[in-house]
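Homework help board

Subject: predicted structure for assignment chain

Our instructor gave us this sequence and asked us to write out the predicted structure in token form, then describe one feature. I got the tokens but I'm not sure how to describe them. Can anyone check?
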Amino acid sequence: MFPVVRPRRLRRTAALRELVRETRLHPSEFVYPLFVTHGTGVRREIGSMPGNFHWSPDTLLEEAGAAFEDGVRAVLLFGIPDAKDPQGSEAWDDGGAVQEAVRRLKADGPELTVMTDVCLCEYTDHGHCGLIRDGAVDNDSSLEKIAEAAVSHARAGADVVAPSDMMDGRVGAIRDALDAEGFQEIAILSYAAKYASAFYGPFREAADSAPQFGDRLGYQMDPGNAREALREVSLDLDEGADMVMVKPALPYLDVIRQVRDTFEVPVAAYNVSGEFSMLRAAADRGWIDWERALLETLTSIKRAGADILLTYHAREAARLLAAGR
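My token output:
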């Protein structure tokens, strides 16, 4: 009891605080999401996500290389097609923007871990994550096309495929399809607990993927549910997922902790576009200290139990850590 016990003793100097710090960030834990489109020389800023761009494969190669030099060893690619159709056919087109970018990234720097988002929403003209039957998203008929997309990404050289569609059974369908094509070594990072969140708004501008009718409440998770997240994770692991993700991160820190405490696999958390843009907007207005708020945010996600942090802040955070912040 006070005055014998004084916790402030270990907070007295920066060296002491660092010595007893429980949670530490490292750039090797970061995954940098990138948007890739067709063409050459493309570097088109996304209005609601300052500092993030649509990249063509050549400029994306430069950005990924710069991130690697900063210490970020993994990227996650999202595709922006030239044209969309009801099936989202560029998702599994070997000539798609993602597939071309994967080939170039792996040829240029095989040590970079290349992950690909596997979904149809970026590619469909209706903006939903699966095929439409009788005016609704049809789960079962979507699985074949989602699996085809994963195989196409693996064929291009992806190290990890990351299904984000939230169709029931898609992890098993992808695992079966990958194995049948000889891609037993390709890992699956499942968006296992992906919530129907208001924090995806800037991403939907970036990918032009807002649903043209209805919403995604029928397949993404209800924000009020946590026990259901554990069930989703368990099902995906049973189907062959190697890693699992909670998305978004900040509103679901409790879910990250429950997943971490329940399962012994790598747990990822996605610090999504809305979380990024809120922090960036507040910093741009001088309302918060950008550097401190950024590292505090990422530390909170890791402290909750995440092993892998997917964040648009990856390069900035890596540079801050290198500078000893």
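Reply (TA_rk): Your tokens look well-formed. For the description, you could write something like this. Residues 24-243 form a domain with the TIM Barrel fold (CATH 3.20.20.70). That's the kind of observation they're looking for.
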